[in-house]
Design a protein that fits this description.
2 domains; 5-stranded antiparallel β-sheet; alpha+beta; single chain; 46% helix; Beta-lactamase
């Protein structure tokens, strides 16, 4: 039987295996993201009991980007419940790119993981003022990360200045009364959510909070309502990796969310979270090294939800 020390050793091996992989390119469509060092690479794990370990550039900060989406969806469910939230956003995979300007047959965004769905969700949690809504979102993520987080204002401004496609999506949603008339307020909430600064350790701690049914594994504070965590994890599994979601579910089999700054957060329910930061992206907008790391760990330790090695809620047994 392998123990956690062997897992740490294996993660170090995986890091060395993939650190020389220079496939992919840094995102440049948001100008500030193009300033990232393409060689940065960090891996972090946090267990549902609060054990942490990292390798590489795990302290390097980057913006959370689309990894904010399942967390915002969770907050919308908490505030509005399932029925009302699902009037504004669906839960079906779209098969389209993350920034597709398409709606489903009910004129809703397909799911909360594409930009249209995330903008709809941002409208639901935007708060009474632009400042209040953003502050509440950052506070919740800080509780999950067990560290004070903040918005990178330069990235937020860059997103706002170049986010014409997202503005088009927002006005389409307004046309169908999916969002209210405060379109600029909603977009400010969305751009700010995407611009929260994290590192791979933060992402792993946030993911471990989801793995621990909404309670931070270190502080034991209930950060997210346990009744809605499964909703977020379900949509992460089916829709979280852009138009790579089907192959991800087939090959890795874990709820996960990627972001175009180079982060990936994957969750092993009741066990742990894996987070990777590497800003070289593939054509779909996913971290090249991040995908390889998660594939290796899932295969080595049987983490796929339907793998015969996965014994359920006890990760040590699965090792």
């Amino acid at each position: 039987m392998k123990d956690l020390s062997q897992l740490k050793s294996y993660i170090a091996q995986v890091y060395e295996r993939h650190r020389s992989n220079n496939d992919g390119v840094v995102a440049t469509y948001i100008p500030e993201l193009g300033k990232a060092n393409p060689n940065h690479f960090g891996i972090s794990l946090v267990t549902a009991t609060g054990e942490e370990f990292s390798v590489g550039d795990s302290q390097q900060e980057f913006t959370i980007q689309s990894i904010c989406k399942p967390l915002a969806f969770l907050m919308a469910l908490e505030q509005h419940g399932r029925e009302e939230t699902l009037r504004h956003v669906g839960i079906e995979p779209s098969g389209e790119a993350f920034n597709s300007i398409q709606l489903d047959a009910l004129n809703r965004p397909f799911n909360p993981m594409v930009n249209a769905g995330a903008i709809s969700v941002a409208n639901l949690i935007k708060g009474s003022s632009p400042e209040a809504g953003v502050a509440n979102f950052v506070k919740r993520l800080s509780q999950a990360a067990h560290r004070e987080l903040r918005v990178d204002q330069a990235v937020c401004n860059s997103e706002s200045e170049t986010g014409h496609r997202n503005r088009a999506i927002a006005h389409l949603l307004r046309n169908f009364d999916i969002i209210d008339g405060a379109v600029d307020h909603t977009l400010h909430q969305y751009f700010s959510q995407c611009s929260v600064l994290v590192n791979s350790r933060d992402l792993a701690m946030i993911g471990a909070t989801l793995a621990n049914i909404g309670a931070n594994p270190v502080t034991h504070d209930e950060v997210f309502d346990m009744h809605f965590v499964k909703d977020a994890l379900s949509v992460m599994l089916t829709c979280g990796m852009y138009d790579f979601a089907g192959e991800w579910a087939y090959r890795v089999g874990l709820p996960a969310k990627s972001g175009v700054a180079g982060g990936i957060m994957a969750v092993v329910n009741r066990q742990l979270s894996i987070a990777v930061y590497s800003p070289r992206l593939d054509a779909r907008g996913n971290s090249v090294r991040g995908i390889q790391v998660c594939k290796d760990l899932a295969e080595e330790y049987g983490l796929h939800a339907f793998d015969f090695m996965n014994f359920g809620s006890n990760f040590i047994r699965a090792l």
